[in-house]
Amino acid sequence: MDRAGHPAATGRPFPTREEIAKGYGANSFVRRVADRAEVPRELAEAGIPAVLATLREAVGDQEFRDATAQLPREYDILLSTPAGPGGAG
C-alpha cells in the first residue's frame, strides 16, 4: 500500500475531531480533496465521482444511500456515476 499521501508521511497534521465533524459544502470538499492529494482542483473534481462509485460498490447501494442522504443536495453532482472509458456514464 502506498502511504506517500498519508499525513504521517507528508508531515501534514491529522485532522482534529472538530475538523472531521465540521460540515462543509461541496466546493470546500473538492478543494480539500485537491489540497490533500496535491492535484489541481479540476482533477480532484473529476476523480471524486469515481472514488464514490467504488465506495458504493464496496458497501452496497443501501448503505451508500443511507450515508449520502445526510449530505446537502449540492453534493448530488459529485455522487453521480462517473463516465466510463467511452465517455458514457
Summary of the model, kept short:
This protein has helices spanning about 5-10, 15-20, 25-35, 40-60, 60-70, 75-80.
Distance between the termini: 29 Å
Strand content: under 5%
Query: How many runs of DSSP E, i.e. beta strands?
Result: 0
Fraction of residues in helix = 55-70%
Main β-sheet, in a few words? none
Taken in chain order, the helices and strands follow as: HHHHHH
Structural class: mainly alpha
Mean pLDDT: 81
Quaternary structure: single chain
Structure explained in plain terms:
It is globular, with a radius of gyration of 14 Å. It has helices spanning 7-10, 17-21, 26-37, 41-59, 61-68, 76-79. Helix 3 (26-37) packs across helix 4 and helix 4 crosses helix 5 (61-68). The chain contains six helices and no strands. 58% of the residues lie in helices and 0% in strands. The N and C termini lie far apart (29 Å). It is mainly alpha-helical and 89 residues long.
Sequence-ordered SSE layout with sheet pairings:
Blueprint: H1 7-10, H2 17-21, H3 26-37, H4 41-59, H5 61-68, H6 76-79
What brief labels describe this structure?
mainly alpha, globular
